[in-house]
Amino acid sequence: MNPAKRHAIFSRLRAANPHPQTELEYSSPFELLVAVVLSAQATDVSVNKATRPLFAVANTPQAIYALGEEGLKHYIKTIGLFNSKAKHVISLCKDLIDKHAGEVPQRREALEALAGVGRKTANVVLNTAFGQPTIAVDTHIFRVANRINLAPGKNVDEVEKKLLKFVPQEFKQNAHHWLILHGRYTCVARKPKCGSCLIEDLCEYKQKAE
Fold first, then answer.
1. Domain residue spans in the chain?
2. 3-21+134-196 is classed in which CATH architecture?
3. How far apart are the first and last CA of the chain?
4. Annotated catalytic residue 120
5. pLDDT digits over 80-97, tens only?
6. What is the dotted CATH code of the domain comprising 29-128?
7. 45 burial class (0-12, 13-18, 19+ CB within 10 angstroms)?
8. What is the Cα–Cα distance from 135 to 148, expressed in whole angstroms?
9. SS3 for 40?
10. What pTM did the predictor assign?
């Protein structure tokens, strides 16, 4: 895919949605961090249903740590893998309290050193909470980048590197949100909705559906 086509794709995505937002509900960097950790292999809808009552009673590292693993499980038991996620979140809260005075760090290395936080989670927090032009590659973005030939790669790291290289600077801040929403609602896994896609004529997918 050539640079002009990439620019046109992001221009259209921006025109359709100038200020894209995450679908996870949060009101602080800490709430976002917890929500992203809980969202692994779960939908944003299911995470929001769990975090609304949780954050109403505990929305700081100290408050969630005070709940303990069992107390936290009570709120997140409707989310997949809730046992291991409860363990991660409690450890994460302890790390934040012990090493960062309860504040979410704004550096990648410090974020990735926290319990349960990998590169993708760090990228989401850096981008969404702190306005850094990172691109977190999840299952939707990986699929879209490969399917439309925007930034093909064999694994998420390869796709991320290519996106950072190929996405024009003016679109980098919001590229993650545009691509994830496009993959979630239009360029879906089983049968992409090509007929109603606003970038259909720019896409290089060979087996377009009607």
1. 3-21+134-196, 29-128
2. Orthogonal Bundle (1.10)
3. 22
4. yes
5. 899 999 999 999 999 999
6. 1.10.340.30
7. exposed
8. 17
9. coil
10. 0.91
